[in-house]
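Predict the 3D structure for this chain.
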Amino acid sequence: MRRKWTLAVVIVLAALVFGACAGGGSAKQESAAPSESRGSTGSAPPNQGAVADGAAPAASPQPGVPAGEPTPVPLDRKIIKNASFDIRVKDGDAAVNKITASVTGAGGYVQDVKQSGTAVQGRTINMTVRVPAVQYAALTTIVRELGEVNNQHEWTEDVTEAFVDLEERIKTKEIHLTQLNKLYAQGGTIQEMLQLESEIARVTADLESMKGRMRVLSNRVDFSTMVINLYEPGVPTPISPPKTVWERMQRGFTGSWNGVVNFLGNFVVFAVSAIPVLVLLAVFGGIAFLIVRFSMKRMPKQTPPAPGHYTPPFAPPLGPQGPPQQPQQGPQAPPQGDPHDQSKQPK
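Done. Predicted structure below.
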């Protein structure tokens, strides 16, 4: 417990000493300036500040800054320059070779190259190059001279604030890391040493991350990025019209044959590509067939009617005694003759 209090007191004293040193330095600078001004004023003769008749007053060191105040030091701006070009060229290969040679000679490098299309249909070449910032203007002039510029875009990014912020944070982290290493060198209990090691590791990781961001930012400031899109128009092969009947027949036969070959090739590709779908359909079809067949087997079979008896479609079912019999009719009365027939009347 006593060791922890000792460590805490040492940390507080170190912070106070560091703050006092910084404050004392600034106070000394502020006190030194008035003393120098007083000394110079006291030693000067009374009429030194008077302006002679006809003489112009002393000019201010910088417009907008009162006389007697120090001139502010100009801040070194950190500017990232970028550019993009769309250019129509006659020979894409010659343009790529010229850009590569110019960038390499200026101390830069080619970051990426992409190409699409053919010489007959037309080609598009996309290049991304990194050039030193001091050679940016010269390289843009060379790029514009490659051909017809269809589109051009140049822009900048001011990263001065981010750059200065990273510098100050790196300095603070380095001072903090130095103090932690001094405390670690003094020794202590196991728990204190473990806490110091953990804090040293965290501060070191933060410091390395900041330095990495600083390197990336410095690289973007030192090397400008240029995206160059080259378009080379195609030169189609001229097709001469057929002159004789034989040439026309030959060309027609060749076209028909190529069409048949392409059709067969497409059919084979389709058949091979459809094999998984056909297999899946066959599996589902087989399962459906088995289900229907199993259902038909479980259905009761109907007994066919006995031979010699006709059963109408909607007749009632047969009883145990066979088909229904016709109802018996009573004795029929003899037919009566025609009362108008006189031949059969008694005389």
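The longest helix spans residues 2-43.
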